[in-house]
Amino acid sequence: MDFLSTLISGLSVGSIYALIALGYTMVYGIAKMLNFAHGDIIMVGAFTCVVAFSTWGMNVFVTIILSVVVCVLVGVLIEKIAYKPLRKAPPLSVLITAIGVSYFLQSTALLIFGPNQRSFPHIIDIPPIKIGSLTISGEAAATLACSFVLMAALSFFINRTTMGKAMRAVSEDKQAAELMGISVNRTISITFAIGSALASIAGIFFGATYGFIGPYSGSMPGIKAFVAAVFGGIGSIPGAMLGGILLGVIENMSKAYISTELSDAIVFGVLILVLLIKPTGLMGKAINEKV
Length: 291
What we know:
With 291 residues, this protein is mainly alpha-helical. Helix content is 73%, strand content 3%. Helix 2 packs parallel to helix 4.
């Protein structure tokens, strides 16, 4: 049963990584940009939750909605101010800008909330689920259920709705999409908005799972979520889901059965191994360049 508990915990953490990785892979797949400030959006969402619930006394549903709205606004503003002018810029310029935006968000949180970590409010009030001798925490059950529902909803949105088809068209060829009457700017902005909304939910689950949040709390989950996106195949939505969940399971299994200190090294080692065998990731598509 210890193995099952570790597995479920890994699935729970992995689903958080998957939600964040979806933002990375959507932005890259459509705008062909890597938003390395995306990990800090989960920090913004978690701090919004702390302020709304603990300081302002809002109920849990209003708190979650406010967190999503704030993160969506931040994500869209980042796209408009920082990334839109750089769509045709060299990748290095985009990378430097992304790092700058990340530091800006961290520094702003540092000025507002201070350097110390804040305890995260107990907003997920679900009793543990017992299956025989196996006990699943309420946070883990809620994280798994909500994450899989959100990922299924996103897959339906991308594959079945008009806006989802527009996103896929922009991903394939921006110029052809414009000729078809699709607004590329609007589509990219909506992509950032959806990714930021998912990151805000991930931030809430992260805070509920670990019980704290700080100005730099989004950095490592953001890096691991990026690893998950590359692991699964950057630009592939199913790949981001699979990569995030596998990453969480590998990390938890490594901590439980090998070494807590070596768990991160093992995660990155598995990534290197996968990329050596399949450079495009587990579900990535090879790109054939025409000469």
